[in-house]
Amino acid sequence: MKELTECKNLYGPLPERDIRLLISMVHQPSTEIWELARRVVISAAPVMTLDMAVKLVAPPHLKDVPDPFTIRRAIRYAVRAQKGRRGRQNQWR
């Protein structure tokens, strides 16, 4: 996922450990991996964890463990928010 290289925590780029955790969450979602991955900071400004990003993009009937599509959407949302482009807002202003 290209977006993972653009994610930043409060100290800079994500460490390899966090990247592997997020990749495993996309490929093999499970409760154990979710409990570890949900606390990973994926956007430094605004500060946003994976769990916060998932709650912003997930449908209201989300199960305990988000599906891979929702995880990808959350990561993409956090990267765009970090760059100052939230969602599909008009950029022509």
Task: Give an account of the 3D structure.
The protein has 93 residues and is mainly alpha-helical. The chain has one domain (2-83). 52% of the residues lie in helices and 10% in strands. The chain has 5 helices and 4 strands. The strands form 2 sheets. Strands 1-2 form a two-stranded antiparallel ribbon. Strands 3-4 form a two-stranded antiparallel ribbon. The longest helix is centred in the last third of the chain and has 16 residues, at 68-83. It is globular. It starts with a helix and ends in a 10-residue tail after the last helix. The model is unreliable at 89-93 (pLDDT under 50).
In short:
The chain is mainly alpha-helical.
Q: Based on Cα principal axes, name the global outline.
A: globular
Helix content: 40-55%
Beta content:
5-15%
Return Rg in Å. 13 Å
> What is the structural class?
mainly alpha
Task: Give a short account of the largest sheet.
Answer: 2 strands, antiparallel
The number of strands is 4
SSE sequence, one letter per element: HEEHHEEHH
Mean pLDDT: 88
Strand order of the largest sheet: 1-2
Contiguous low-pLDDT stretches (5 residues minimum) are: 89-93
Number of domains: 1
Please report the number of helical segments.
5
Give the oligomeric state.
single chain
In angstroms, what separates the terminal alpha carbons? Answer: 30 Å
Map the helices and strands.
Elements lengths: L1 H5 L1 E2 L2 E2 L2 H12 L3 H7 L3 E3 L4 E2 H8 L10 H16 L10
Helix pairs in contact: 2-3, 4-5
Keywords:
single chain; about 90 residues; two-stranded antiparallel ribbon; two-stranded antiparallel sheet; globular
